[in-house]
Structures are given as structure tokens and as C-alpha cells.
Amino acid sequence: EVQLMQSGAEVKKPGESLKISCKGSEYNFTNYWIGWVRQMPGKGLEWMGIIYPGNSDTRYSPSFQGQVTISADKSISTAYLQWSSLKASDTAMYYCARPGVPGDMGPFDYWGQGTLVTVSS
Amino acid sequence: SYELTQPPSVSVSPGQTARITCSGDALPKKYAYWYQQKSGQAPVLVIYEDSKRPSGIPERFSGSSSGTMATLTISGAQVEDEADYYCYSTDSSGIHRGVFGGGTKLTVL
Lengths: 121, 109
Description:
The complex is a heterodimer.
Chain A: E1 3-6, E2 10-12, E3 18-25, E4 34-39, E5 45-52, E6 57-60, E7 69-73, E8 78-83, E9 92-99, E10 108-111, E11 115-119
Parallel strand pairs in A: 2-11
Antiparallel strand pairs in A: 1-3, 3-8, 4-5, 4-9, 5-6, 7-8, 9-10, 9-11
Chain B: E1 9-12, E2 18-23, E3 33-37, E4 44-47, E5 61-66, E6 69-74, E7 83-90, E8 98-100, E9 104-108
Parallel strand pairs in B: 1-9
Antiparallel strand pairs in B: 2-6, 3-4, 3-7, 5-6, 7-8, 7-9
């Protein structure tokens, strides 16, 4: 069974850096795009971006371009979402997710359990 | 940037038909997809490619699309269908950027 296992909840201060992870298992990690979705408290889903681990091709939503970095290490089947300087407005649940078809960019059929990021002074 | 517009809320009684709309300029050229998200859970895909239903999704869930509007229909809504529903599609830039609608809270009571 396809699994996306995300790293645990984080509590950080404004200005700090952070890298959260999403490890894929029970499928060929290299052949599937994997994306990140933000959900702020009480708000809707926001598509952040997507990466193809096979060649690191990455696409960002205009809203998140320059604000976060999406990367992947295919040797350990893990995708990452990172911030260089967190803001309080980055407080949210972050999901990684994967399409159902190899090579397809969407929609997302498989989802991680989510990583709650809290940024507070 | 590209936007998909949904009504914030829809309310029906059990057994009634619920319809949730999603409008977007690129929908005549791009498929719409629908997700159900229950409180504290990850989203679940309930409709793909405008009108197809994944295995395991009840037949009461259906989808359609015409022009710039896609519609999710729940025929004979059940109390357990109460959830947030999001449409999803992509823009027409050719770069492939996904976008979710703002979400619709479906209340069944």
C-alpha cells in the first residue's frame, strides 16, 4: 500500500529556518510527482508546488514562489519543504500528496498525514 | 493568478440533493476534480476528470461540467456527507500549476 509518512509537528520562532519531510514507500518514488498543500487554521486547501524526483523538475504556485523551497532526495525516497525565515503567517498544516498515475502532475490521490507547523514568538 | 470560486456553504436536509458549484475561466479546457475533507482528516478524492467516480466512492456522488462551471452533486445526501468540499483544477498557462477552490462547507441536518 502506498504510504506518505510526514515528519512530526514543529514549533518554531519567527525568523527561524525549517525543513519538513515526506517519505514515500511501497512505490517507485522516482516516477511520481509529489506535491505540497497548505491549510491554514480554519481555512481551505492551497496548492503550493510539486516536484518530480526523477529529475528535480519543480513547479511553484505564484503565491509560494520565492517563499518556500521544494526538494527531493530520490536515494531515500523523501521530499522536503523548507523555509529560510519563518513568519507567524506560516502557521498551518502542511500535507504532502501524490498523484495516482506515474508521470501525472495531478490530481493528488494519496496524501500524507500532515505536519503541523506553529510559528510563534 | 488563476482562481476557482465556490460558495462558502450549502445546507440540505438528509435525503435531499446537494449541489456545489465551482467556477473558473479555464474549466472549458481543464478537468475539474472534487475532494471531500472531514474535520481533522486529509482530503479524499470523490470525483475526477469532471464526472468519474473513484472506486469506493458511493454512487450518490456525481460530477458534471459545462462551460466555466463544474458541479458536484450528492443525490440523497447523508449525515455522514457533512464535510468541506474543494474543487481542484489547473491553470491554462501550460506550466501546470494546480489550484483549489476556496471550499464549500456542506451541512446536512
